[in-house]
Structures are given as structure tokens and as C-alpha cells.
Amino acid sequence: MIIYNTLTRRKEQFIPMEPGKVRMFVCGPTVYDLSHVGHAKTYTQFDLVARYLRARGYQVTYAQNLTDIDDKIIRRAAELGIPPQQLAKEYEQAYLEDMAALHNTSVDTHERALDHIDDIVAQVQALNDRGHAYQLDDGWYFDLTTFPDYGKLSGRTDTRPEDALSRVDENDHKRNPGDFALWKARKPGEPYWDTPLGPGRPGWHIEDTAITEALFGPQYDLHGGAVDLIFPHHEAEIAQMESASGRAPLVRCWMHTGFLRVGGDKMAKSAGNFTTIRDALAKTDYRTLRYAFLSQHYRSSMELDESTLDQARGARRRVENFWRLIDADHDDQATRDLTERARDRFYARLDDDFDTPAALAALFDYIREHNRSGQQPGRVAGNFLNEVDALFDTFDFAPDETSVEDATIEERLAERRRFRGEKKFAEADAIRNDLKARGITIEDTAAGTRWWREG
Prior knowledge:
The chain is of the alpha/beta class. The protein contains 14 helices and 16 strands. A hairpin with a 4-residue loop joins strand 1 and strand 2.
């Protein structure tokens, strides 16, 4: 199994620090507003990563943080006239509901920053003891000159417009322009904690490393997030933890997802071009949305529009229509080799940096080959498709008791063919329209009439 490692800029064999066990952390949201579908892309793709690692036999501990104290939360709460903790709790609950609606079920623990204040303070003190931190009138800062490896993840140390910046870390007295806040001193009207560092609250970057150190220790296997977090956020995490512990690397493998774009631009709340997960799920079902995300490689950027969703629905329908041909009581030994070859290709693609589009291509190749074989798909085929859906969670294989039975559809199509042969086109069109109203689309081709159920 190989994974592209952002740190080394190449694909590498994935070898956990402890055989058979994977400690995995993905940066969660700042809970000050509803999450958008850009978040949904990242968290759905990492949901598949965790599912697949478990399917490969690893014991996975998947942690995600929730930033519940931050400049953005304080500012938004002040606008609404409510306490920051109240705002954070409301949007934390909304985020968890959104993830459940998307069937992103792989996270083992969501860790709030406010539950780790003591861990944060201890890490800042360790940095100070080792000569990496200094205090100014507005709090404690990390001294970048004490960590020569700063920039090794991103290959740079300069700030660019696309970066997710470290909120408000400006002070004319900083030793270096890039020095970032570890602990922010108390300000009037803001939440604060009395600590040995002085009254105040955490900086943004220190929350994640304090959480992961508490859960996993100073080093662990896999860290994920969106590509805009590479600099400066993930660079800061590396600088903090490796400086505090004296051990490197902080993470064995770094994974980053590509942007979700709208009209070519990154989707972001700050840009005002975002669609919330709730709005998206009001217009389409979770399976189609998941399929749209998982049909793209996690490292790729993608556009999400009606065309993308239509393609996802159509692709789902092809798999579900094949599923309806499966007879679970049929012993399909005649096509066992075909199925096993397809299964091997499917898993080989996922073993290569979670290449979901190539894995799905292997699935569609299999469906085409099986249809050409003229053989009845049975238990072996059914087991393979169930394995696929356990990972992707994008197909509806449950029988719909309210749907039109296949035999009834075929009877109606035979009747329609008779009407067409008798040139009773109005009666034939009435059958087409009746089936359309019941969720069945038909298409007349040179090879005959095809039909499928609408997604």
C-alpha cells in the first residue's frame, strides 16, 4: 500500500509506527458557522481513507479536532450578542449532524480545544523551556529562528493569498514577521483562562499539537487536511511539536485534499461563494453527493455543479441497475474468475494512494464484462458489490417496496412495443409517460429498448 506523502513529495510505502495500528488525525472545523460542501469533500474523502485502512486490517484510531475558541468565533458571537461558547456548541452540533447526514462515520473521537487547555499550556511551557518561545505584551509567540526546518512541508516560508492564515497574529515587536501566536493575552470582553502563562486563550496552531500529543504522543502515523492548511498551519504544527519534543518527524505521512471550486475559484466562506452541506442535501441525496466527491482523486481539485451531480446520479444508477440483476441464490461459479480479477483490480487501485476514480473505473469495466458474458450474476458478484459499498457508501442496494417490479416493467414495455407496431403512438407514449411518473426512464436504441430507474 502506497500513499503520496506531502512531506517528501512522493508516493511511499505506508508503514505505521506500530505494526497493525494506525493513529490518524484530520484537522476539523472552526465551529462558528454552518459547514460548506468544501468541508464535505475533505471529510468524505478521509472517511473513505479510514474505512479502507480498516478494511485492510489495520486497527485505526481516527481523531478530529473541533476549534471551539478562536478569533472567528469571538467575532461572530459578538455580532450575534451571545457568548462564544454558546455559538461554538450550536455549530459543533450542526457540524456533527451534517457529518452523520453524509454518512461520514469513521471518526473515533472529536476533541474540543477547550477540553485541552492544560495540555496547551504545558506545550507552550515546554517550548519556552527549550528556548523556542518568547513573551510580548499581547501573549506568547514561537520564534521561527529557533527551528531551521520551518518550511520543509510546503517548501516555503512566505505567505500567499490562498493560505489559511493564523488569524490575527500581528505585533510590531515580534522578533520575526512569521512568528505565530502560541497563547494570546486576555482582551476586554473576550473569554480567558488563568494559567501560568498569564490570563488568556490559545493560539490557533497550538490547539492541534496539544490534542495530538495528548492522544498519540509526540509522533504518529497520518495527518490529513485540506491543501490550504499546509502553510502556515501544518508548518506551525511541525515546528511546535518537533521543537517541544526534540523528536522528528511529527507525522510519518501527510495527506492533503484538493480544493472544491466554484467557477474556477476555491469555495470559501470568506469569498462568499459557498453552499452549505444542508443546502446541498436539500437538493440531492447523500449518496449522490458522496459519489461526486469519491469519483475524484482526493488530491485533485474539483468543480461541484449540476453537471457533476447528474454524472454522479447516472453512474450510481448503472451500478444499482446491475445489482438488481443479481440473484443471491444463484451459484455464479462460471463468472467467479471474472469477478475475482475485477476485485483484485479494484483493491489494487485503492492500494495506490486511494485512487478512487480508478477503482470505480475497474468496477464499471467489470459490469460491462459481466453483461457481455450473458451470465446471471449471483452470490459472488453480490459479495463484491457489497464490499464496494461498505467502503464508498454511495449505492442504494436495498429493495424499494414501493417501486415498480422489474417483471411489471417488462410487461409494460412489451405492450408498448405492440402499440408501436400497430402505429398506436399515443397509447405507446402514454406507457412511457406512466413509467416516467413512476421513476422509470426508457430509451429506444438500434439494439432495442433500454430502461433504468431514476436516482
